[in-house]
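## tool: complex_structure
## caller: assistant
## args:
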Amino acid sequence: MEIRLKGISHSYRDGGLKVLSDINLSIREGEIVCLIGPSGCGKSTLLRIIGGLELPSAGAVLQVGDPPPTSLNPLTYVFQDFALLPWRTVEGNISLALEDHPIGRKMRNEIIDGVLARTNLTEFRKAYPRQLSGGMKQRVAIARALSVNPAVMLMDEPLSALDSQIREILMADLIELWCRENFTAFYVTHNLAEAVRLGHRVAVLSRRPGRIREIIEIETPLDQRSADSPELGRHQQHLWEMLRDEARAADLELANV
Amino acid sequence: MSDATVALTAPAEKPVRFRGGGFRTRPLGIISPIVFVVVIGLWELGSQSGLIGKLILPAPSEALQALLELIETGNLWKHLGASLQRLIVGWTAGTILGIGVGLAIALFSYVRAGAQPLVSAIFPIPKIALLPLFIIWFGIGEGSKIATILFGTFFPTVIATYGGVDNVDRTLIRMAQSFGVSWSSIVRKIIIPGAMPAILSGFRISIAIAIVLLVAAEMIGAEFGVGAYILLAGSLVATDQLIAGVAILSALGLTIAWLIGKAESYLLRWRT
Ligand SMILES: Nc1ncnc2c1ncn2[C@@H]1O[C@H](COP(=O)(O)OP(=O)(O)O)[C@@H](O)[C@H]1O
Ligand SMILES: [Mg+2]
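## result:
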């Protein structure tokens, strides 16, 4: 299944400040598309629009082809703040995503076993979120997202709330997961290093109203990318130059409000 | 110049002053029983020595005597049983209705628009003022007493419930919606557990109100009940019995607070 964005524009109030302007983009099957942009440029808004949590003022999000029949929730989010229920254990949090589907208890337990194993969480099955570190919580959120077998994962700065060591580890985990399973993802971040490590393509959004400035393609396969490769460095430098001016201008704009 | 002289003499060392204490309370378990014993001991001494007049305040030992008498004659259970029954029926009904209406106000815009002003208008009325009306409606018997307690319990529960729901983390609800979780599942699995801390602290308030109303209602036309016992003792100037009755109320309140504490630590065991 592929997602195609056609002329998406959005403002939160009629005639109000425009947040997004004429976004055209497609997310192809098996591909990770990263979206970077200065904060407040409408990245989260765009992600909510793609997943059907917000209606765009103009334009449409098209789903090309059908999701695999085994997909319980084709468009599935991973949130920056994890969004785990504090009153449920790891297992219960994953179960929440499955309980409304007619799959039976046995099947549900099998799915939970499976995703816990895939995210190395098996021994934390009975733990409550408060007992887990930030990195572990995000791993649970990723396990929950995988449990519904999404056609496209919509990830909103999933690593931004974590410290840099944990971020590095989880990034490696995500790369490994992608190499095994080729999931499709739209990955929002403001961290350039993340974008060039994880993205097959990186789209740069301008400051508000967000429009796409450029889409760069990174040829190196994910598993051959390392933090110090010169090619990634070049891409990162290029992205930084583009983003720096946007970020500076966006910063001044906010100060003037 | 002066820099050089400073560099030559070693600067004085002194520890940084600690200024982080003061606002942390320490659990000192032995203090509370000591305070209890000292207060009652002084009171007993004052009574024995005649410093406190017998009619003004009886000695704790006399109040205890009255309490034992109450137990021996079996009247304790008659009074306490009648009171507990009213309290349990009134409070439970008020709480169930209150949680239901509170949820409805929190979840449905029309209900909120319609009911919230009504709740705000009736909540501040001391419900005891409505007791005469309830007696006209439900008769002098159990009906009016239970109705008063029910009514008094209902409003704080409504307010605690919808306040609790309003404070449930919106990101959790959005997460559930993004997973296609149904409306009723969101209410059962996210909204109600998320509002539970607020609902339970509402219980502490509503139960205190319920006890006040219970005693007040029992002072009008009740044969049995702790309130009736206290009223009778008062009109006979039997202050020892009066104090015994008050002690029963205190014990009742403490027991219920303890039960709510137990319920909290069970239902909210996911909290730190
Ligand atoms: N629910 C909302 N109502 C009104 N304005 C909003 C809402 N959500 C976001 N905005 C505004 O839209 C702009 C883009 O927000 P967002 O998509 O969160 O940006 P980003 O994720 O790129 O930091 C911001 O200026 C923000 O203030
Ligand atoms: Mg954002």
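## assistant note: Chain B has a mean pLDDT of 91. The interface with chain A takes residues 171-172, 174-182, 185, 189-190, 193-194, 270-272 of chain B (CB under 8 Å). Handing back to user.
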